[in-house]
Amino acid sequence: MIDGCGRTIDHLRLSLTDHCNLACRYCAPEDTPVLGGMIEANFAFEIVRWLSLQHGIRHIRLTGGEPLLHPRLIPLIERLAGLDTLHEVTLTTNGQMLAQKAAALRDAGLNRINISLDTLDPRRFAHLTRGGDLARTLAGIEAAVAVGLTPVRINVVVQRGLNDHELNDIAQWSLARGCTVRFLEVMPIGPLAHVIDEHLVSAAEMLAQLNERFWLRPIPQSLGQPAVDYAAVGVGLRGVIGIIAPTTRPFCSRCRRLRVTSRGQLVTCLHDDRYYDLSRWWNGQTLDVEGADATLSSAINEKPASGAFVQLLCMQALGG
Q1: Which of 15, 69, 110, 174 sits CB 3.0–4.6 Å from 154 for a disulfide?
Q2: Residue 2 falls within a domain, yes or no?
Q3: Across 254-273, average pLDDT
Q4: How many domains in the chain?
Q5: Using an 8 Å Cβ cutoff, are 50 and 292 in contact?
Q6: pLDDT value at position 42?
Q7: What distance in Å separates the CA atoms of residue 281 and residue 264, rounded to the nearest whole number?
Q8: Which of 167, 128, 101 has its CA nearest to residue 24?
Q9: Domain extent for 270
Q10: How far apart are the first and last CA of the chain?
Q11: How far apart are CA 56 and CA 309, in angstroms?
Q12: Residue 192 DSSP one-character state
């Protein structure tokens, strides 16, 4: 797929559910609960098969909410892993249920995993996630490493006044376990757009802090990769540290991504409030490919060069 700006689209983020067992403060509004949506596993598979066989999608990431809450997750991964057209099947999780499921995910054919970890302090973790248990996420990370879902990627949303003093400690903890760690700027999404005003820490500030403990050398970027990765060397440690800076160093010109929400809505840009309904082409058993093709064509042609920062949904509903 080539969009109206000449960008090749070959990555899909598929939200399996907008249910979550946490309520992170930059993701889920406290006073506006997300209405529960959970995509039917057969519908999810047929969307991916259609997009990969006919439209060149090669990389699929399963997201949420929390995708480990989906009751048909393991069978779905098994079916997706059987598609020769896909290069990789990955998943993003908060890790709270991962220790019990890591081996099953690997055996089903999952290639690797991203895990959210915004702090190493148990009390701060409970505050940032509104009730999460840090020990469970750490155990999930250890389990993912142990079963070989590697390279495990640790995602850290950096927030001024909350966890911005922990970057080096989180990086050191992650690299010591062979994980890649990526630090993300907060994003102004939907009803939580205001978090950027109080909590944004720029990529430049992150790098300045990281350079106090690590020697960083930029790694050439692969096409469509939002992160700028660095080969990192510290005392007795080496690995990869990445920075994802959608606010101060936007990467719209390199975007190769589509999203499908747990309600079957196609989203071409996080910062654009246009959605394209694929669920209308699903009758419970088969996907009307001709109708879905028409919807996809409109979406791709209208994918903006950059977002207008107009969005009604929160990140939890959009798909992580």
Answers
A1: 174
A2: no
A3: 91
A4: 1
A5: yes
A6: 98
A7: 10
A8: 128
A9: 11-318
A10: 23
A11: 28
A12: G
Residue at 212 is within a domain: yes
Q: In this model, does residue 188 exceed pLDDT 90?
A: no
Task: Indicate which CATH number applies to the domain containing 261.
Answer: 3.20.20.70
pLDDT at 37: 85
294-320 average pLDDT score: 81
Q: Which of 107-121, 124-138, 251-265 has the weakest average pLDDT?
A: 251-265
| Beta strands in 98-236, from DSSP E residues, in sequence order | 112-116, 153-158, 180-185, 215-218, 228-234
pLDDT at position 160 = 96
Q: What are phi and psi of 146, to 5 degrees?
A: -65, -35
Strand 228-234 versus strand 11-15 pairing type: unpaired
Query: What's the token pair of residue 190?
Result: 């939907």
Question: Three-state DSSP class for 312?
Answer: coil
- C-beta separation of 112 from 90 below 8 A: yes
Helix pair 41-55, 289-302: axis angle to 10 deg: 70
Phi/psi zone of residue 148: left (φ > 0), alpha (ψ -120 to 50 degrees), beta?
left
Rounded Cα distance, 68 and 113, in Å: 12
Bridge partners of 265?
A: 277
Tokens of 303: 């994918």
pLDDT band with cut points at 50, 70 and 90 for residue 312: low
pTM of the model: 0.94
pLDDT at position 191 is: 59
Helix 122-129 and helix 134-147, axial crossing angle in degrees, nearest 10: 100
CB 18 within 8 A of CB 66: no
Three-state DSSP state, 195: helix
